[in-house]
Amino acid sequence: MKKLFVIIIFTFSNIYIFANDTLTFQYVDSATYSMYQKQEWKSIITLGNNAIYNNIDYFYLRMRIGIAYYELKEYTPAISHFEKALEFNSADEVAMEYKYYSLLNSAKTREAGYYAKTFPQSLIDKIKPEIPKKIDKIIFEGGFNIVPGFDTLKTIINPPDQKNYRIEKDVTGKFIFAGIGVNHELNKKLSIFHSFNFLQSQGFQQLYYNYNIANQNNYILNQLQYYFAPTYYGKKNNATTLFANVLYVSSNKYKYTYTKIQPMPPPLDQPIPNYSYKIDTIKFTSLQYVLGFNYLKNYKNNLIDITATYSNLNSLTQIELTTCFGFYANKQKTIFSKTNVTLFSQRPDINLIFSQLVKIKLHHQLWLDIYGNYGKQRNFNENSGYIVQNTNDETLYRIGAKLTFPIFRKLNFYLSYSYSAKVVPLQYIYFTGIRQNKETFQTIIKNYNYNQHLIYGGLIWKF
Fold this sequence. Notes:
The protein has about 475 residues and is α+β, with helices and mostly antiparallel strands. It is about 25% helix and about 55% strand.
C-alpha cells in the first residue's frame, strides 16, 4: 500500500512538471492560434485557462479565450476576459466591440450603453451602439379586456332564501386604456421613468330591496394615472427605486343611502322589515395612490429584490411586502426565471400572493415571457406599483404570455394576452331585530365567478 502511494505521488509530480515544462509562451501562443483558426473553442478555453494559471498571460491569449466563450454564447466569462485584454491594450477597438456585444447578450443593456459612451468615434460610427440619452426611450401602450359573463353579473340577484334582503351591487365590466411613458437617462447613477395613462371602463350598479329592483344604472368610469419612479444605481450592481402612482377616478353614479327600517304593523308577532333608502345622483370622484420602494441586487447569474408599498385604494389601506429571486437557467442566458412572494395586508385580511415569470430568448431580440400569479388580489399593485388592480372584483389567479420583437433597429413591439379567473362578492344584508334601540343586521356573502381576457400591446421607441 505504501509503495502504491509513492507511485501515485511520483506519477502526478511528473505530470505537473511536464505541464509546466510544456506550457511555454511559444507553445501556448502557437497552439491557441491554431485552435482559433480551426474554431476549437473548448480547447482554447481549456488550454488558455491552464496557461493563465501558470502565469502565462497576454493580450492575444485573453482575446482568444474571450472570443471562444463568446462563440459558445457564454457571455459572462467572455466579458471578464475582454476586460483583461483591455488592461493590456486599452485602445483595442475589437476588444471593446466584443465586450459591448457580450454585455448586450447578457441582458446588461444599460451597462452596455454607458460603456459605449467611452468608445472612440470610429467605433461608434462602425457599430452604431445605443448610447443613453436624456430622453432615452418612449413607450406607447394600449389595450382592452373582454368579459364574457358581464351581462350575467348584471342580472344576478339570487337571494339565499325568502328573507327580505337588501343588495347594493357595483360591478366593473369592459375597459380600454392607453398611455405613454418616458425614460430619462440623466447619468450613469440616475434614471427617471414616468408615465401618464388613461383608462375608461363600463360599470353597473343596482339596488335591490323589499323584493324589488329599486334602481339600476349603467355608468362610465374614467381614471387618470400618473406614475413617477427615479432609480439610483450603486457601485456594486445594485439599484434603488422610489416610486409613486397617483390615480384620479371619476364617474356619474347613484349614491345609495340606507335610512331606516319600517316594520309591518301588528298583529304580526315577527314584523317583516320594510327598508327605506335615499337615492341621489352624484359626481363620484376618488383620489387614490401607491407609494413604495424597490431594492435590486444583481449577481453574476441571479438577482434578488425587495419591494415595499403603502397604498390607499377605494378608501381602504393596503401594505405589501414582496421578495423576489431571479436566475438564468443556462450559461447562454437565454432562459430567465423570476419568482415573487408577496405578503398582502388589507384589514382585516392578510394573505400571500405568488407570482412567476419565465423569459425565453427565441431569437436575436425576440423574447417570449410566460407569467402568472395566484392568490386573492383586490386593491393589489405589482411591478413596483405600476400596475394597480382597483376594480370592485377580486382576481384569484392569472396566466399569460408576452412576445417582444423588433420592427426596426430602434423600435420594438410587444403584444400580450392574459386570462384571469375573477370573483364578484355580493353582500346580502337582512334585518335581525332591534337591540338596545339599534337596528341589527346579518350579512351573507355569495361569490360569483367569471373570467376576463386582457389583450394589450405597445411600442418602445429607443432614441
